[in-house]
């Protein structure tokens, strides 16, 4: 089994890093058919992701992103290409000037403690905006 370990230092702080990580999870779901679960913590967040042949997590802190993944036998042959794509996507998100407007706040402005699939979170946010 091939392993990936990608580390990126940043100076965004946890609030902005959280937005970047959430956007990364959205992209992973849409572009790579991953199932992502985002869990917010007081000092760090974790995005767990899985699909056939891949599982891993992205740890997010105020100054660091650390992605660890295990690739199954078939995908292990493409480790270099997969790693390059992940690095490209993460680096692109880290260099965005506004880090997008995606937030994890309820309609009342209080922070939610998330530990659920990203797609369900997005659906709940859309419903909250309509109410």
Descriptive account of the structure:
With 131 residues, the protein is an alpha+beta fold. The protein has a single domain (2-102, 111-119), classed as Sirohaem synthase, central domain (Double Stranded RNA Binding Domain, 2-Layer Sandwich), CATH 3.30.160. 40% of the residues lie in helices and 29% in strands. It has helices at 13-32, 73-76, 79-94, 118-130; strands at residues 2-9, 35-39, 45-51, 54-60, 64-71, 115-117. A 6-stranded antiparallel beta sheet has the order 1-5-4-3-2-6. Helix 1 crosses helix 3 (79-94). The radius of gyration is 15 Å and the shape is globular. Residues 98-116 and 121-131 have low confidence and may be disordered.
Q: For the record, what is the CATH homologous superfamily label?
A: Sirohaem synthase, central domain
Quantity of strands, as a count: 6
Quickly count the helices. Answer: 4
Poorly predicted sequence stretches spanning 5 or more consecutive residues: 98-116, 121-131
Q: Provide the β-strand percentage band.
A: 25-35%
CATH-defined fold name: Double Stranded RNA Binding Domain
Considering DSSP H and I runs of 4 or more, what fraction of the residues is helical? 40-55%
Structure class: alpha+beta
Question: What count of structural domains?
Answer: 1
CATH class descriptor name: Alpha Beta
